[in-house]
Design brief:
- By secondary structure, the chain is an alpha/beta fold.
- The protein has one domain (2-125, 197-266): Rossmann fold (3-Layer(aba) Sandwich).
- The chain is built from 11 helices and 8 strands.
- The protein has an 8-stranded mixed β-sheet, sandwiched between helices.
- A hairpin with a 2-residue loop joins strand 1 (2-6) and strand 2 (9-16).
- The longest helix has 14 residues, at 71-84.
- It starts with a strand and ends with a helix.
Length: 269
Amino acid sequence: MAFFTVQDLRLYYEWTRGDPERTVVFLNGVMTTASSWELYAPLWAEAGWGVLLHDFRGQLQSDKPPGPYTFGQHVQDLAALLDCLEVGKVHLIGTSYGGEVALHFAVEHPQRVSSLCVIDSASELDALLEAFVRSWALLASPATARELYWAAIPSLYSSRFIRANQRFLEERAETFAALPEDYFTGQRWLYETFLGLNVTGRLAEIPCPALVVCGEEDLLKPPHFSRLIAERIPASQLVLLPGCGHVAIFEQPETLKSLLFGFTGRYSR
């Protein structure tokens, strides 16, 4: 385990050093942690890439100062971590909340981003998305952890995945319910941060090639959010995954790994 301190804040990170000209950064969804990329990171590491994962401020293994935070703070935290590791340009891969941090990073530091992959993300809110997140905030406590988990499930996974993976979901519910109290404190701050999302007007400033991926059955952030992102980023392409819900990184890992590895490899030196 490694920690980086920025402005008296400890951030958890995992760093695999590789080719200094090829570094990929994986950015987590809001409810997850760096381990959510365990099916992905080894593929790039085995190919000789530098691989960086970290928990945002407010996430499981990092500090959880009082919030709400801003996406700008997440960007500053990541930039400071990259500077500490002496990493210049990177390929960003983010899912959901992590994709939104990636969009903000590419806007604020375009010279540091070689390629951008955003999965099941949004650049702004609509009333339904806001209602989902506000409902989660009301249930974010150890006493109602199971209720939060099961309330979120229908918006996170496709109906087919839910039917086929009941045991997996039940086991994750037990793990979720056993998380420490400060995890749920951090979640509430992160949900509040998310409610300030509004980066659509700046997407045209992103010059790097971008891959925008979305599950066709994503109820939380439906494909119209991804279409908007792809329309606004000049050098972008959109891929919709049939039969897939919001958490594509878990539902269709093999398809997604192929897409992401091929895309980042195309734009690496």
